[in-house]
Write a structure and sequence with these properties.
CATH class of the largest domain in chain A: Mainly Alpha
Number of strands of chain A: 9
Radius of gyration of chain A: 21 Å
CATH topology of the largest domain in chain A: Dehydroquinate synthase-like, alpha domain
Oligomer: homodimer
Helix content of chain A: 40-55%
């Protein structure tokens, strides 16, 4: 293992009926609450009304900011920061999935400073404080509810940037699996892909002595493979929603990668794609990940690929080369995601050769190489992107 | 899963050379530091000098309280509380293993109040604040460095009590595997047993839908079985000390039992024993656990026992009854601990029939039944204690 610091102060409040906890948690931070949410589905499924009811019980002064988009935009974040300043907001209550919570982190960091939030996101300026954030999770996917990370897209410059600060951990996050019953089929598929992809990004590393972290990664992947298809058949199963909701948190709260850092090249490429084309993050990831795997697997690193194939996909290695076992595992992952209904080619998002150069440029805009398990160049990005235009290997 | 709240704010600082972090962390909490430690081994192995050097670098005003015993005593805690009050201590720096850190939690909770600490420990009075605690772990075992729990023994009343409060989480814990190189052989054995026993106490529950938590438990147990004997041969192996140190934390930081509660009857019985006989905690646990397992396993609960046997001890269930598989797993656990050199009978601590009644009484002093996986009565305690007087089943 490598040296590490783990410090995750988020209070996770998990289970049926836990919306109740809002009345206890919110008053700790203030009375003026800015409710942040996305497209308004929470008004259709009753979650909005239930939250307003809780806020009224404790006499919160409630402001609302709605319309936070799937890849949250800098312009949206700036508008919400203006609201915070104008109304002297004391707590942000983010209701949604990764996008709303990611936006909340940027809004929180920008609310108490004259520094422009893009300068903070691009690390030109430092965060020194942030508004407290509470979250109510309605889409289990990103795991943003138990970490400090955020991804924001600047549409003026076509940049999608990940950033984090010690001040942007939510103070509390309410996770009631019931609140995800009405997540649409496609979003549910993306949630399953996203959780698995977060685990897989971590799983590919060269650090020694991580058997317990490996075991946790493999247990999450196996459970997602077991529960995922059943959930799509039974979208109102408490246990299956519960599994995805817990695993989304565990995949991104820092616990499974204690002592090592994962690869994350695939996320880098996906961020470049969705800075140019506004596609669903997990859709891009489902397409890219198997292609990244086939691109980087070689005789010096088959160990991790083989371990994944054997332990997660139950592939019998008997009589096969390590490379064969590895490729079987990759094919099974792709087949599994395809079977859920996830996309397999960028063409499904009407992306063709014409923008690949622009996307590849973006993957190396920060530095000429990226990815930790295997260092990639612009040339690698182009290859992976080209492979992602066709349905390969299935 | 059951509803749960997870909120663990400890900053874990893990790895080689991390003692360095003291100079950054301590000044956040104050200048007057009370250094707490046990029998003085840290003066022999150089850890004391290195810590003092760090404290001098930041001009801390250092006070010392030494002689905290293996089962920390209420009388010792009270003496240290007096020092805190007299010297207006601002931070406790606990250097040691579970005993010193457990004592620190009681000292911290008693330092800023006129309430007697025993009333807090016995839950007659509530904690409302506590001194901040930092820890430097020199014995990987209890995992006290990343939780709020503490066990204190009152020798006047012969009571050993576990308690916890939201205020007694350490602010930071420094875990450098190198600092455990000089842990004596017997203590290393006890550390391995203790970590495994904490996982096992959690593992036995009836809550459904915990596959990922199970996977984490099993990964820790397998790694302890793999690493434990090698560590005893190579006490200065960084990787093996690292494994035990991380697993000690994971076994007790609340992450592996998200959504369910473990049994903990064996700890209840061990606490009763060591309230009467001052024996090493993990020694008692090594003797009791297999006897608890054999006592409670029955046709309605073999599932967990069988899962343990198959997944952790690689027992082939083919052609065997569930009970046979379960008993084989129990025998292998006992054999493994015995092979490390852990005790198998209470007689090794010169305990005989004469005090069993007194011990059994203590197991039911709070309520007539205890243990969550299987409710036990005083009669059960007596049976398990009697079995623990002989070497059974090996």
């Amino acid at each position: 293992m490598d040296n590490f610091t783990f410090h995750n102060p988020v209070k996770l409040i998990f289970g049926r009926g836990k919306l109740e906890a809002l009345t206890e948690e919110i008053p700790k931070y203030g009375n003026k609450v800015l409710l942040l949410y996305g497209g308004g589905s929470i008004k259709c499924n009753g979650i909005y009304d239930r939250i307003i009811e809780k806020l009224n019980e404790i006499n919160s002064e409630v402001f609302e900011f709605t319309g936070i988009e799937a890849n949250p935009k800098l312009s949206t974040v700036r508008q919400a920061i203006d609201v915070c300043k104008r109304e002297q907001i004391e707590l942000l209550l983010a209701v949604g999935g990764g996008s709303v919570i990611d936006a909340a982190k940027a809004i929180a960091a920008g609310a108490n400073t004259e520094t422009d939030i893009w300068d903070i996101i691009t690390k030109k300026e430092k965060v020194t404080e942030a508004l407290p954030i509470g979250t109510v999770v309605t889409i289990a996917s990103a795991g943003s509810e138990m970490n400090a990370s955020s991804v924001i897209t600047n549409w003026e410059t076509k940049e999608k940037k990940g950033w984090a600060s010690p001040y942007t951990y939510p103070k509390f996050s309410v996770l009631d699996p019931v609140l995800t019953y009405s997540v649409p089929h496609e979003q549910t598929v993306f949630g399953i892909v996203d959780v698995m992809a977060h685990v897989l990004e971590n799983y590919f590393h060269h650090t020694s002595n991580t058997p317990v972290q490996d075991g946790l990664c493999e247990a999450i992947l196996r459970e997602m493979i077991e529960a995922g298809p059943r959930l799509l058949e039974n979208p109102k199963s408490y246990e299956l929603r519960e599994s995805v909701m817990l695993n989304a948190v565990l995949a991104r709260n820092g616990m499974l990668n204690m002592g090592y850092k994962g690869d994350w090249a695939t996320h880098e490429i996906e961020h470049a794609i969705s800075a140019v084309h506004d596609i669903p993050h997990a859709g891009g990831i489902a397409i890219l990940f198997p292609n990244w795997m086939r691109h980087v697997v070689d005789k010096n690193n088959t160990g991790r690929f083989k371990q994944l194939a054997v332990r997660v996909f139950d592939i019998d290695p008997e009589g096969k080369s390590d490379r064969e076992v590895s490729l079987e595992g990759i094919a099974q992952l792709q087949e599994f995601w395809k079977g859920l209904g996830a996309p397999v080619s960028l063409k499904e998002y009407e992306i063709d050769e014409s923008t690949l150069d622009e996307i590849a440029d973006k993957t190396v805009s920060k530095s000429p190489e990226f990815g930790r398990f295997k260092r990639l160049t612009r040339h690698d990005s182009m290859n992976i992107l080209r492979e992602s235009l066709q349905e390969v290997g299935v």
